[in-house]
Design a protein that fits this description.
Oligomer: single chain
Number of domains: 1
CATH superfamily: D-tyrosyl-tRNA(Tyr) deacylase
Radius of gyration: 15 Å
Number of strands: 8
Order of helices and strands: EEEHEEEHEE
Distance between the termini: 6 Å
CATH architecture: 3-Layer(bba) Sandwich
CATH topology: D-tyrosyl-trna(Tyr) Deacylase, Chain: A
């Protein structure tokens, strides 16, 4: 599993023109599920996301995690994160988890984040989504397990 975190002052996801998920300050979390991912992967990634220090403290140091910074998380499935781009000009998605299983992993991740106290909004799995965000910093981090 890979998670691309972007520190945002605002982010929203629209499907067919309707907002399905929205946060103010926090992190947009794009999640790519890989063929070897299992339920425990979601638990580990949730711990990593919630513990990751990507927000500034009162001294301007990047010392706070999303909870400490009173931020929220907007989670969206992004299977293109697991594309193999090493050869040729067309990405290969052979390493991606099958859609039904990936949907379960993303749902498990969101559940784990909520159970640990995270404020979580979600995109809509498999939908054509429009993602709008204001990246703060800019600050973008790729977390991998």
């Amino acid at each position: 599993m890979k998670a691309l975190l972007q520190r945002v002052s605002h982010a929203e996801i629209r499907v067919a023109g309707k907002v399905v998920g929205e946060i103010s300050a926090g992190a947009l979390v794009m999640v790519g599920c890989e063929a070897q991912d299992e339920a425990l992967t979601s638990v580990k990634m949730a711990e990593k996301i919630l513990g990751f220090r990507m927000f500034e403290d009162e001294n301007g140091k990047t010392n706070l995690n999303v909870t400490e910074a009173n931020g929220a998380l907007l989670v969206v499935s992004q299977f293109t994160l697991v594309a193999d781009t090493r050869k040729g000009r067309r990405p290969s998605f052979d390493g991606a988890l099958a859609p039904a299983e990936a949907s379960a992993r993303v749902s498990e991740l969101c559940d784990c984040l909520r159970q640990a106290g995270g404020i979580v909004a979600e995109g809509q799995f498999g939908a054509k989504m429009e993602v709008e965000l204001v990246n703060q910093g800019p600050a973008t981090y790729l977390l991998e397990l």
